[in-house]
Amino acid sequence: MKGDEAPNSRIQGWHQQRRRRITMMGQVFVGLCLGAVGAETTYPPGTQELWALRRRSSEQEEADVDSENRRRKSVRVTSLEQLHQVLSPEGGLRLRDLDVRGDSTAALLSSSFPPSPSPSSPPSFHPVAAAIHARIASRSTPGARTDGLKIGLSLEGGGMRGCVGAGMLAALNHLGLRDTFDVVYGSSAGSLMGAYFLSGQIPLEGPGIYYDILSQAGRKFIDQRQIMRSIGLGALDFRRENYEALLRRQPGRPVLNLDFLLESVIENLMPLEWGTFWTRQEQIPLKVVVSALQSQQPVALSSADGNFQTLAELAQCMRASMLLPGIAGPLVRIEETRMGTSLVGREEGREGGREGEECTHVLVLRTRPDGVSVTGKMSLIEKLMYRRFFSRKNELPGIAQWMTQQQHKRIYAEDVLRLNQEARDPGSTGPTPLMTIALREDMPEIHRLEMRREVLLEGVRNGFAVAYDLLVPEEGKKGKGTEVAREVFRMAEQVAGEGNG
Fold first, then answer.
1. In the chain, what are the domain boundaries?
2. Whether domain 73-115+122-221+256-337+358-498 has CATH 3.40.1090
3. What pLDDT digit, counting tens, does each position of 464-483 carry?
4. Running DSSP on this structure, what letter comes out for residue 96?
5. Backbone angles phi, psi at 292, to 5 degrees
6. What is the 3-state secondary structure (H, E, C) of 108-131?
C-alpha cells in the first residue's frame, strides 16, 4: 500500500508544480499549435480561452492550407516536365510554392463511349477499360487466360478516406469485374479493402467497416488527445494517466489504434473470411505495399514471398503499410530478404501508377478527389511529429529530413501528374497504359481521421458512383452511378436515417 502511495504523491506533486510553471508563452504555444486537436481535458487557466480563438477541426486545417496556397498565388503545375523545371535550381521554386491537382476523372468522363456494334464488342475509350470489358465478353477467368495480358488493380490508402476506395471496389464487384484482374496491389487502407474484395465481402462487410464499426468506435480507434505526446509535448498533457505513463517510461497510446482495426475488427467484429480469401489470392494475389526505410524503396509483401500465411501475419503486413509516422505506433520490422520488388507504393511514398513495370494494364483507384492540391506547406505539427518519430525515437535523421523537406509529396505529385497525362493520352508515360478513377471535383474530400457515419457513407456512395459511370459497359447506363449507389447501399442509408431520427 505504501509503495502505491509514494508514486501517487510524486505524481500529484509533479502535476501541481507543472501547472504553476506554465507561462503565458507556453499557453500561447499550445493554443496556436494544438488548437486543432480539441482534446477534452483540463488545462491551465487561460489556455482554453486561447484555444477558442484558434480552435479548428482537422478538416478546416487542410482547407486553410489550400486557401494559403491560393493567397500566395501558387504556381499551377500541369505536367511532369513543368514540375521538374520549376523545382530545378534554375526554376528557384519549392514544392510549397506549387499547386498540383488531379484531373484524370474529368478527362475520362469527357471521353465519348463509341457505340458497340455487338454485345461482345465493348467500348474502347481507354485501353485499360477495353481490356477489362474484353475479358468480360470472352468470359476469361483467373488461371485460364488466353489474351496474354496482365491487368493490375492498384488501391490507394488514406486512412478513413479508404471508404472511397471501398465504394469503388463495390462498383467493380457490382459490374462483375473482380475476376478480370490478375493482381491486386493495396497500400494502407487499400490493402485492407483489397482483402475483402478478394474474399467476396464487398459491398456489405468491407465498406461497412467504415460507416458501421469505425464510425462508432470513438477513442478506441482514434484518440486525438494523444497528439501532444506524438509531437514531443506529452508533459503539457495534464491528464493523470499521461503523467503516470511518463513517470514509468511507458509508451503512450497512439492517436490511431491499429490494434482495434487489425485485431478486433478483422478477427471478430467484421471477420475476414480467411478460407475464401486464401483460395482466391492464390489466383489473384494480394500484394501489400509498404515503405522500406533501410532501402528507402516501396516494396510489396505477398504470400508468394512468404510474408504472410495466416490472418495474423497478413494483419502485420497491413500494419506496416498503414503506419502513419508518429501517430500509429512503432515501426514494423520485416526481413527485407522476404520483400517483393514491385515499384508500386503508398500515398506517403509512391502512387499506384508505378506498377507498370510488371503489368500490361493498370487500373488505379485514388481516394483523393480531382481538383485537390497534393502539395502545399507542411504544418508545424507534421514537422514536429516527423522529427520526433524518425530522429529521436528511431535514430533515422535522414528519413526525418527527407520527410520534412516534403520529398514524399514530390513523389506523389509526380505520380498524380503522370496519371493525369495517362488519362488524356493512354500509354504516353511508358509502355503500360494507366487508367485512374478518382472522385470528381464537385465531390468533397474525406479527411483521413473522419469519424462521422453519414460522411463516410457518402464517401462510399460517391466512390461507387464514379467507378460505375466510368466502367459500366452499356452506353445507356453511363451517368446513373449515383442512382445505383443509393440502391446498393439503401439499407445502410436507412440505418443512418433511423439513427438521426
1. 73-115+122-221+256-337+358-498
2. yes
3. 999 999 999 988 898 999 99
4. G
5. -85, 120
6. HHCCCCCCCCCCCCCCCCCHHHHH
CA distance 436 to 199: 23
Nearest to 424 by CA among 16, 106, 4: 106
CA distance 261 to 358: 31
Output phi, psi for 161, to 5 deg: -65, -10
pLDDT score of 497 more than 70:
no
Q: Please give the full DSSP string across 215-268, using - where no structure is assigned.
A: HHHGGGTB-GGGHHHHTT-GGG---HHHHHHHHTTPPPPPSB-HHIIIIIIIII
Q: Is 326 helix (H, G, I), strand (E, B) or coil?
A: coil
From CA 338, how far away is CA 331, in angstroms rounded? 17
Q: List pLDDT tens digits, range 252-273.
A: 678 899 999 999 999 999 999 9
Check: CB of residue 301 under 8 Å from CB of residue 319.
no
Nearest Cα to Cα of residue 197 among 158, 154, 159, 160: 154
Look at the chain and count its residues: 501
Strand partners, 341: none
Residue 401: DSSP 8-state:
H
Q: For every residue of 274-310, which 3-state class applies, written as one string?
A: HHHHHHHHCCCCEEEEEEECCCCEEEEECCCCCCCCC
| Per-residue pLDDT, 120 | 43
203 preceded by a cis bond (ω within 30 of 0): yes
Among residues 335, 218, 314, 213, which one has the least CA distance to residue 268? 213
CA distances from residue 243 to 19, 23, 46, 124 in whole angstroms, order as listed: 13, 19, 21, 62
Nearest to 255 by CA among 239, 231, 236: 231
Neighbours of 44 (CB within 10 A): 18
Listing DSSP states for 378-390 in one string gives: PPHHHHHHHIIII
Would you tell me how many other CB atoms lie within 10 Å of the CB of residue 337?
7
Rounded CA-CA distance 417/411 in Å is: 10
Distance CA 244, CA 11 (A): 7
Cα–Cα distance for residue pair 148/146, rounded to 1 Å:
6
Instruction: Give the 3-state secondary structure of residue 371.
Output: coil
- Judge whether residue 156 has pLDDT over 50: yes
